[in-house]
Structure formats: structure tokens, C-alpha cells
């Protein structure tokens, strides 16, 4: 009896252990915690300890459901990525590129070649395209991409949109407004970035490892995102967001990511580099901007954007969308290169041979919706791609003009007599007459007009001034008729710039302009100043100078957004002061333009004077006639105003030197 009592006492004193051996857990038996335990001894098994380290309670049903929901979200995300990732697998497994027939190009752009240039476009192991010519050894080199600087997902789900942005206070609403205004007012002219593709790939990229972004989301990059913000925030309503200190934080973040992106680039990298140079320009660092734009140009050629890759699409080795964007990105760089060349007075560097076709209209991009602020009109198509096609054509004409007239390779008189200037004039007229209805301006000037359409017409007038201004001074009697024609076209183009800038101010405000318009307004101001200097009487000189002062006022408005406009305003002010100090009867600089005289300022029309060499005096207005009713200019003989204007415009004009 006592024995059984002791046994019961022993059983009561036995304690359960917190961890059982593996065999006891599998058998769901109690384990005494000994090594070996009694159960394993009884079954003659090896007593094994270890395995599971986490002995917390099992997940609850709500936690399990939450995990299942997260799995479903991830599976949906994988399905969304499937189309993009199929491209990666195709490109990784593709054989070497065979030769094919290149698309026909104009004779002067496509000299005879012994090889098809698409052979020089290679695929890296990760599926991206690179270009190496036949002399390069890098056809066989393995690409080396630097590791990502950032661990995957360093911010919470609610701040995922700011994953690649600097640690600075910025609300999601302020972010979205800045990006939206960038696409509305900065990027639209010249299609610097394609909006719907950027937005789509940004959503993809925020859930990708950074190293996978260039292939899976080629229209987005952290560098591009930051540069878009440092430019788009210039349009912000809040002063602290517009402040250069705030915007420089995003510029510095873009610079921090520069080396990594150059080592693993995409189309977005090219766009980001070009926009990075624009930021330097807007802050007045034009030399830095010029050099940085060269990085974008080099990257453009490194990715082979100058090569027609249509054969790769036909073989199923490149998506049609990517082929289109490669073409768009190349011509975007081309447009910016020509604008930079005019801005700096230097020769454009992308006028060399290329086989990539000219851009064509993309209906998806055209259908991107423009909504008018304050709902002043219903939403409408943006016609972004159509505008870009005609912008490219205009800049190709501009390239011919600047490389012919402003490089000092030809005598001005030779260009007049051999018909070169008339040919350029006819090209501008034909371009303007070829514009489709969505890009035309209404006759009354009261209909709402998209900002990039206004900028397109401003660009045409800008190029017209650059074409005719060097020929607007009469050198000898033989060129008097052409001098009258050149001054007429130049002055009327300047008047059109004045009218279009007023239209933009009325419909969109000059605070919402891209920096290019500052150069256009400045060029028109120099044209008015030249007209004032050549006027035969005080009335016409005062009218022209008043227009020049109006251009100055516009530059000051633009300078509230872009500091570089203040630089141009200062230069133009100095030119006005130089003119006033040199005239016998200077006009007050503060005089404002009120109502123009009808006989002095006819409606500017590029089709006036169809045949410039035999234009009758009846086709010229009184103001233009007054410019040539004297033998000498009313400006002092010791001042060469034309040279001053050319220096101020940054354009060299001579017979023995290039533009630098």
C-alpha cells in the first residue's frame, strides 16, 4: 500500500518539460526531457533533439487569413509582371543577331555601309541593348553592373511611392502635383518623357529590386524620378517647395544614383541625364548643363538608339513599344541638342549619320488626356505625339540653318544669291502649312490652345528670326531688296512671338513655361531692338523699343520660375542701355507699349512675299519702309549693334571662324 502511495506521489511530482524530443513530438507523447527520454528507450529509438527553434503559439485564424490575402496580392503582382518578364527570358535565350535589311533612309543621311548596323546592337545577359561598333572588343565582354545601393523596401507601405526619393518632407499630393505639372508644362514640348509609360513603370518599379528596373521597367529610373521632381517643383504653389534648396535635394539624390545607373542604363537613364542638364541650365549654370547634356548624348549612342532596331521587332526579339520608345528617345535628344546648340551658339553634335527612322504618331500617347484647370473647358486629347513629330521636323530644319549660317563656313552674300536662304524660308513655310488641325492656331486667338501647341508656333517664329536676322542689315545696293525682305520676315516673326507669348500668358501664365521660351522671348527682344536702331524716325523707334521692353517684362515674369530668365533679362537690359547711350535722341526705357499702330504692325504671316527677290514696295508696311529710307543707321558709328546682338544671343557670325 505504501509502495503504491509512493508511486502516486512520484507521478504527482513529475513536471512537463517545455520542449519534447523529435520522436515524442511526432508520436504526440509526453517527454520527460531526459537524453535519451523514457519513451525513446521503450521504443528503442534514437532520441533526437533539435529542429524547430520557434516555440511560439500557432498563428491565429485571422493571421492566417491575412497571410493568404498577401499571397493573393503577390500572385496578382506576378501575373502583372508576366508580360514584361517574358521579354527578359526571350532576350536572354536569343541567339546572335543576324544581318537584315535596314529601312531605307535619305541618301544624305545614309552613306553606303558594308554591314547592317543592327548587328552592332547586342543584348546583355540581363536582356538590355548595347551598341558596340566593329572595332570594339566589348562584343565579348561580360557586363558588370554595380550592386544596388538600397535594400529592398526600406520604407513602409504607405510611403512606398517615395522609395527612391531623398528623406525630405514631401506629401503625396505635392509629389503628384509636381509630376503632373512637369508633364503638362515642361516635358510636353519635345516629349522629354512619355507620361503614361513613366506612370505605369513607376508602379512596377516600386515593387522591384533596383537592379531589375532597367529591364522590367525601362521607362522609369530613380534618377529620372528625382530629376522630374527637381524640375516639376519649380511650378509648385508653395514657396518652400519652389525654393532652390528643396529642389537641389532631389538633384543631389539624382547625382548620388548617377554612377549606378550609368553602369546599368535604360531609356529612362537617357531621359534623366538630359533633364539633369536642363536643371543646371535653369539655374544659370549653362556651361555645366552643356557638358551634362553631352552625357545624355553619349548614353544615347551607347544604347544604340541611333540604329533602326525594327528588324529585331520583326524577329520577335524586341517589343514594338520598346522600339517606338527607342526612336522617340533618340529624337528627343536630337531636339534638345539643337536647342542647346542655339542656346550656347555652338554646333549641334547629333547631326551625323543615323539609321533610326523619324518618329511617327503614336495614338496611345496622343490620347493622353489634358484636363483644363478650373474646368474652363472639357478634357481633350493632348496630341503629344503629333506635336513631337512636327517638333522634330522643325528642329531638323533648324539644324540645317544653324550649321549653314552660324558656323562661318559660308559668305552671307553667297547664301543669298545661291538660293540657300530662300530654300530655308520655303521649308519653314511648308512646315507651317503642313500642320494638322489639332496643331493649328485659331484665327481669332481666343480659343483655348494647349501649351505645347503654342510653344510649337513660338519655336517656328524663333527659328525664322534666327534665319533672317543676320541678313537684315543691307551691305550693298545689290542686296537692298533682300535686306528689306529679311527685315520684314524677322520683324514679323518677332511680332508673332510677342503675340504668342501674350496668348500663353493669358491662357496658362508665364510661371508655367519651360525654360526654352525664355530664349525665344529674348531673341524676339533683340529683333525689336535692332528694328529700333534702324528706324528712321522717333515714332517707329519708340514703338519697336516699347516691344523690346515688353519682352523684358515677360523675361522678369519667367524668372520667377527659372533663374536663367533673369540672366537673359539682364543681358537684354544692357543691350538696351548700350543702344540708348549711342542714339542721338534716346527713348526712355520705361516707356510701355499700349496700342500698336495698325499700319505698323500687320498680322504676321509666313506666306507673305512669296517671291522675295521681286517683292514690290506695296507689300511692305510703313515701318519696314522707314528702315530703309536712310543711308545710315541712327545709331552711333562706333557701335556695331549687330555684333552686340549676336554676342548677346550666343551666336557667332563670321566668315572665318566657327561657332565654337
TrEMBL record:
<dbReference type="Pfam" id="PF04082">
    <property type="entry name" value="Fungal_trans"/>
</dbReference>
<protein>
    <recommendedName>
        <fullName>Zn(2)-C6 fungal-type domain-containing protein</fullName>
    </recommendedName>
</protein>
<keyword id="KW-0175">Coiled coil</keyword>
<dbReference type="GO" id="GO:0005634">
    <property type="term" value="C:nucleus"/>
</dbReference>
<dbReference type="InterPro" id="IPR051615">
    <property type="entry name" value="Transcr_Regulatory_Elem"/>
</dbReference>
<keyword id="KW-0862">Zinc</keyword>
<keyword id="KW-0805">Transcription regulation</keyword>
<feature type="compositionally biased region" description="Polar residues">
    <location>
        <begin position="95"/>
        <end position="104"/>
    </location>
</feature>
<dbReference type="GO" id="GO:0000981">
    <property type="term" value="F:DNA-binding transcription factor activity, RNA polymerase II-specific"/>
</dbReference>
<keyword id="KW-0479">Metal-binding</keyword>
<dbReference type="GO" id="GO:0006351">
    <property type="term" value="P:DNA-templated transcription"/>
</dbReference>
<keyword id="KW-0539">Nucleus</keyword>
<feature type="coiled-coil region">
    <location>
        <begin position="64"/>
        <end position="91"/>
    </location>
</feature>
<dbReference type="InterPro" id="IPR007219">
    <property type="entry name" value="XnlR_reg_dom"/>
</dbReference>
<dbReference type="Pfam" id="PF00172">
    <property type="entry name" value="Zn_clus"/>
</dbReference>
<keyword id="KW-0804">Transcription</keyword>
<dbReference type="GO" id="GO:0003677">
    <property type="term" value="F:DNA binding"/>
</dbReference>
<feature type="region of interest" description="Disordered">
    <location>
        <begin position="95"/>
        <end position="114"/>
    </location>
</feature>
<feature type="domain" description="Zn(2)-C6 fungal-type">
    <location>
        <begin position="20"/>
        <end position="49"/>
    </location>
</feature>
<dbReference type="GO" id="GO:0008270">
    <property type="term" value="F:zinc ion binding"/>
</dbReference>
<keyword id="KW-0238">DNA-binding</keyword>
<dbReference type="InterPro" id="IPR001138">
    <property type="entry name" value="Zn2Cys6_DnaBD"/>
</dbReference>
<dbReference type="InterPro" id="IPR036864">
    <property type="entry name" value="Zn2-C6_fun-type_DNA-bd_sf"/>
</dbReference>
